[in-house]
Write a sequence for this structure.
């Protein structure tokens, strides 16, 4: 039987691979006790566990250190994650690449 913790762990492990593959210059670290990825010591993106936060979903997000600024003046800084579909993985890969440009 799968548990919420198993799902969060699987998502965290897959996001780790996506981030380290698409932005190898980011260093894994803990941030508020949860996984994050930093450049020059400053967190660029992070994962918050839904289970740890007692929420129904985990959150993958970006700090102001990420280069996500959009010419429209509006862009998302975090995403709810329940499962990682191929499309979701593609979005994360593209955003992580953009965040470190």
């Amino acid at each position: 039987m799968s548990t919420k913790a198993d799902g969060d762990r699987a998502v965290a492990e897959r996001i780790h691979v996506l981030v380290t593959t698409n932005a190898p210059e980011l260093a894994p670290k803990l941030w508020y006790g949860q996984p994050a990825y930093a450049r020059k010591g400053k967190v660029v993106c992070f994962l918050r566990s839904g289970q740890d936060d007692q929420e129904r979903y985990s959150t993958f997000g970006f700090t102001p250190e990420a280069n996500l600024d959009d010419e429209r003046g509006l862009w998302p800084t975090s995403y709810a994650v329940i499962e990682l579909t191929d499309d979701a993985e593609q979005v994360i890969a593209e955003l992580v690449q953009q965040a470190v440009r």
Q: What stands out?
A: The chain is about 35% helix and 25% strand. The chain has a mean pLDDT of 93.
